[in-house]
Design a protein that fits this description.
This protein has 102 residues and is an all-alpha fold. The protein is built from seven helices and no strands. The relative contact order is 0.10.
């Protein structure tokens, strides 16, 4: 079950990013079939490589496992931007989100 989840999630995120298995393997510094082997269920990435995959997608490991988020990399960018704002601005943005969610 978890093997399937990891495989499917990597495929989903890779497709959202618009890169091929080959390109992702190359970008991560591996042989051509590295991501194919993960996507096909033949292998799982070791923990160090899992962290590299999360970095590749611009997400945290927590966001990797959060299937409620359709665009985890975009949400990560928003969170990073919020860290640069003062509390008053964050409250204004929260008010906007609340209005839009209704």
């Amino acid at each position: 079950m978890y093997v399937d989840f990891v495989r499917d999630r990597i495929t989903q995120l890779r497709m959202q990013k618009g890169v091929s298995e080959y390109q992702m393997s190359y970008d991560l510094g591996h042989s051509r079939g590295y991501i194919y082997n993960i996507s096909s269920g033949k292998a799982l990435p070791p923990l160090k490589e899992f962290f590299a995959i999360c970095d590749y997608f611009g997400i945290t490991p927590q966001q990797f496992f959060d299937t409620d988020s359709q665009e985890p990399a975009l949400i990560q960018k928003v969170v990073q931007g919020l860290h640069q704002l003062d509390p008053q601005d964050i409250h204004m943005i929260l008010d906007i989100i609340d209005r839009m969610a209704k």
